[in-house]
Amino acid sequence: MAGLSSVLLAAAVGAMSAQPTDEGAGQRPIYLATEQHADSVELRVVGEADAATEARYALEVTGGANGNRNRTVQRGTARLVPNRKVVLMTLRLGSQSGTHWTAKLHVEGADGADYDIVESR
Q: Where are the beta strands (DSSP E) in 1-121?
């Protein structure tokens, strides 16, 4: 399978604008940002905190047509420096007509504050 920094999966996306979304930006130290393109979608796991923070994260992405589903899980540990935004991981999903994708980001904070962010199209 491809390296941790990028994975190409066959998955479909609807015709949407290329507007990026930073769900949870400024509220959670690690969040999922998506950017829709005409032929793909880019998923980024981003870290940004006001104070030094350590957290474990896992991004699970599924996509593809029924009977031909793809699944990948990427994990890591982030040690965030205060007030510094960093992209921890990038995945680009190619599109194919009639298929969908779902991304679930699970974060385990060192302080026990766990949370999930789920996005799908």
A: 8-10, 20-22, 30-36, 40-47, 53-64, 70-80, 86-94, 100-109, 114-120
> Would you say 55 and 109 are in contact if contact means Cβ atoms under 8 Å apart?
yes
pTM exceeding 0.85: no
Answer whether 46's CB lies under 8 Å from 22's CB.
Answer: yes
Q: Rounded to whole angstroms, how far apart are CA atoms 42 and 17?
A: 13
CB contact set of 28 (below 8 Å; sequence gap of 6+): 107, 115, 117
Closest of 90, 76, 85 to residue 29, by C-alpha = 85
**What is the set of domains in the chain, with CATH numbers?**
8-120 (2.60.40.2420)
Residue 27 in 3-state DSSP? coil
Contact 43, 23 (CB under 8 A): no
Q: Which whole number is the average pLDDT over 80-86?
A: 96
Residue 40 vs residue 102, higher pLDDT: 102
The token pair that represents 39 in the structure block: 């032929």
